[in-house]
Each structure stands twice: as structure tokens, then as C-alpha cells.
Amino acid sequence: MVWHLRKPTHATIHSYLASLTGVEVNYPNPGISRGACPPGYRKNYLSHQLGHGRECFARACRGLMTWAMVRDLGWLTLCRPAPAVAIGQVVATLARPGGLWALNPCKIVYQQLAGDNPNAPNTAEFGYVTLPGHVFFGEERFSVRFDPKTEAVTYELCAYTKPATWLTAVGRPYATLFQKRFARESAASLARFCQTPSQ
Known about the structure:
Blueprint: E1 2-4, H1 10-19, E2 42-52, H2 54-65, E3 76-79, E4 90-95, E5 101-112, E6 123-130, E7 136-146, E8 152-163, H3 166-170, H4 172-194
Antiparallel strand pairs: 1-5, 2-8, 3-4, 4-5, 5-6, 6-7, 7-8
């Protein structure tokens, strides 16, 4: 984690993200968020219904791939070099726990658009993994699913993490509260996006 006494400038953030472009992930299991939670990791999972119908699904997919779930959160900002999700992209969350500004870097390692996978044509998703400097080791998956039978559109967030620093280990209950808050508020943000057809 990179700590700042003051909110870092856009130039500082851009330089930091650029410096991480070729950095390897800081744990040995990239892709785990598509399967079962491995031993030693803690699971954070949320499923939230966004609405019904193909139109809602299309908006949800568009919102997912343009980071609509992290808009207007207030306490957390996603710093990214491009407006849309792309494999290999390095991003970072900027938050202010305990009065200090903190940047936690991640890299997107997989992406699936609706229709890409013939075995799951009604699913859009992507996952990012932690990079050195993040307070956790692990991975987080963001998904949108359409049920052809009920026409329900569902948002899922699934994260498998474990502390990467002694400070995170000691403050794990506090960090877990932030993870759960992010899950709830990201679902609400994507739901708002889906409820505005013009977006």
C-alpha cells in the first residue's frame, strides 16, 4: 500500500499506475475467483438482483465494463488509465482509512463479455488480482448474470483474500467491514446505473 498524508494528485496516481504495468501479481493463484475458495483465504460474497429483462441485462453489462459499480461511492475512488475494463489494465483504489490516503493496486487478469463463452452466454464478468503494495493477497470477481427462465438480472461480487501485511492481519475485522461495505455499495451503484435507461 502507498500511503499519503494528502490526497495524491492525478499526475502522482498516473505515474504510480504506469510503474506497475509490468509487475507480477503478488500471489500464486491468479484466476481463483472463478472457482472454490482455496485454504487460507477468506471469502467475501454478495449477490444482488438488479432488475429483469434483456434491456436491463444489456445496461448492466455496459455498466460493469465501464466501472459503474464504483461511481459515486464517496469514500472510495477507482483510479484507472482507461474508461473501460481491459485485460492487463492496472488500476488502484484510493481510500482514506484512519485519516491517511491509501492506494491499493490491482491488475485485471480475465474478462468475459456476454456471449463470449458458449457455456455461459448470459454472463459478463472480469476479475482483478492484487499487486505488490496491496494490503491483501487475493482476487476479486465482478459478474452480471441473466436467467433466461425468470429474466432476472443479478450482480455478483466474489473476493478471496488474506492479509498481506501484519497491520492488515491485526486490523482484519476493520478491513472486513470495509470489504462488505464496498460490496453493498457497489451493488447499489450498478443498480442506479441500470435504472437510468439513457446511460
